[in-house]
Amino acid sequence: MDREAKRGAIAEAVRGAKLLGSVCTGTMLLGDLVVGRPCTTFWAAKDDLKARGAHVVDSRVVDDGDLITAGGVTCGIDLGLWLVERLFGIETALLAQKIMEYERRGPVWLSRDNPAQLVG
Questions:
Q1: pLDDT tens digits, 78-94
Q2: Do residues 14 and 33 make contact, with C-beta atoms less than 8 angstroms apart?
């Protein structure tokens, strides 16, 4: 399958999802779903993502409501912990972080109209 076909198939599969997360260059596979939206990806792919029409943010995790993206592979751990915090609260996220013996780096970038800002 060529790259465009993959992007189209993935975009169609996730269309209508209540919450979508993407890590590293997986963001590049979301096609039109990222156009005009704040998001991030692996550092070496940021220019390509911008060329596709995304508003690229320099952050490990970018939360735009129903779309949460993370930079490189290890940023996926931060994304997972952010989802735990957003869905279950800060105490649960801190416990998960302690169990994993992992410390998150940097803040999560939140869009201005993001209801997640009320969590935690």
A1: 999 999 999 999 999 99
A2: yes
